[in-house]
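Exercise 7b. Backbone tokens:
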């Protein structure tokens, strides 16, 4: 893995001085789908960040599952706390490269808006149930939320975010289309994204700006490390198990050498914070190397690079894959987790079937003009309604409609 030298740290400056030439500039934003006067007190990307934070979708993240369901304990991460942790790492990395910190933070804060209740279980079930209607993808759903489903403003639906924040949201993990063949890089591009791009081209065959790329890798860093913390707290993982993973073993050896006899709580926190530092420094070193090879003079050079700039070194990428494989085998697929996931799946399937059969039971504006809605449009409306639910609301809706509701234990 790559470590950051003192010279490199001095060179990148941690946000000191002028913005980097390859940073995304708010003064040169491509604007919003609906034209608005510019703010007199905030940059365009600060305005985006603020709209995201004040949105209904952001508040709902508080009661949406990360790994453990909310009733299992107040100390486990939810989508909201995970999102805040991602935004902190993204902002720190953006500062290191003298980028626009507000844009990096905005992309980080909005990246999970499309997630369903009950974590990836809800997404997997909805994708299956929506197979005949265009499928369900949490990234595409996030775009629907910020361009259509949020109902806050008199003059437009959604949040009317800038082009740069939207393109960062949609393709922070890389281009969605191959520029030569037009084929999807990770399977078919969701219709939601294609339909939006027909109206407001997000250039899904090119890479996003560096701020969005750093937000994406911050997501990996955050959940890799903090899921370990939650796994230790839940008793699904222990330190002996972590020693099976090369990177975790190295850091545990370091912690135990420096602090022999440390209690388990501090030992776990010391391990995860050092793991974050190790990954962050590796990203800084590798991204610095990539930038020195590309020598970008504008954000357009980042868009056209044809490769990801913000990434782990090959060695760290291999260690991270080992860590992910370990977490899937020992935590995400743990029998206790899988049992609760099966119960959550039952809830989502039941709600989808009930609302498709009697859509008026959704209530509110969701039940308006149902006579004008065909089956595919109804299915999408039901999926929108379900995806916006928190864990707690999904449970209460299921109890309202059914005689028996699993208790997710």
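Sequence design result:
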């Amino acid at each position: 893995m790559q470590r950051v030298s003192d010279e490199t740290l001095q060179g990148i400056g941690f946000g000191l001085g002028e913005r980097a030439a390859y940073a995304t500039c708010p003064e040169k934003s491509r604007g919003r789908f609906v034209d608005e006067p510019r703010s007199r007190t905030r940059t365009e990307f600060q305005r985006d960040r603020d709209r995201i934070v004040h949105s209904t979708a952001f508040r709902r993240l508080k009661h949406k599952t990360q790994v453990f369901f909310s009733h299992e304990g107040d100390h486990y991460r939810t989508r909201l706390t995970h999102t805040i942790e991602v935004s902190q790492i993204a902002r720190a990395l953006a500062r290191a490269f003298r980028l626009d910190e507000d844009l990096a933070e905005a992309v980080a804060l909005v990246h999970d808006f499309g997630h369903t209740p009950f974590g990836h279980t809800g997404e997997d079930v909805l994708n299956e149930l929506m197979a005949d209607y265009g499928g369900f993808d949490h990234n595409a759903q996030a775009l629907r939320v910020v361009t259509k489903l949020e109902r806050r403003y008199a003059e437009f639906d959604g949040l009317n975010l800038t082009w740069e924040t939207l393109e960062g949201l949609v393709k922070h993990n890389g281009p969605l289309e191959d520029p030569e063949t037009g084929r999807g890089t990770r399977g078919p591009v969701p219709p939601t994204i294609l339909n939006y791009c027909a109206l407001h081209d997000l250039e899904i065959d090119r890479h996003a700006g560096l701020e969005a790329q750093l937000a994406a890798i911050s997501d990996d860093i955050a959940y890799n490390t903090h899921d370990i913390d939650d796994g230790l707290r839940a008793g699904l993982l222990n330190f002996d198990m972590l020693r099976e993973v090369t990177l975790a073993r190295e850091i545990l050896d370091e912690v135990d050498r420096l602090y022999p006899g440390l209690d388990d709580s501090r030992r776990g926190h010391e391990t995860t914070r050092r793991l974050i530092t190790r990954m962050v420094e590796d990203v800084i070193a590798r991204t610095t190397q990539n930038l020195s090879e590309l020598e970008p003079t504008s954000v357009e050079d980042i868009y056209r690079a044809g490769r990801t700039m913000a990434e782990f070194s090959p060695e760290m990428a291999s260690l991270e894959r080992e860590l992910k494989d370990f977490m899937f085998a020992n935590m995400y697929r743990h029998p206790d987790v899988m049992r609760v996931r099966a119960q959550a799946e039952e809830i989502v399937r039941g709600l989808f079937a009930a609302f498709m059969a009697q859509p008026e039971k959704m209530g509110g504006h969701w039940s308006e003009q149902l006579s004008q809605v065909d089956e595919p449009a109804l299915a999408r409306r039901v999926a929108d309604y379900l995806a916006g639910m928190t864990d707690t609301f999904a449970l209460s809706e299921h109890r309202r409609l059914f005689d028996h509701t699993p208790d997710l234990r």
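Instructor comment: The radius of gyration is 22 Å. The chain has three domains: 12-210, 225-333, 337-401.
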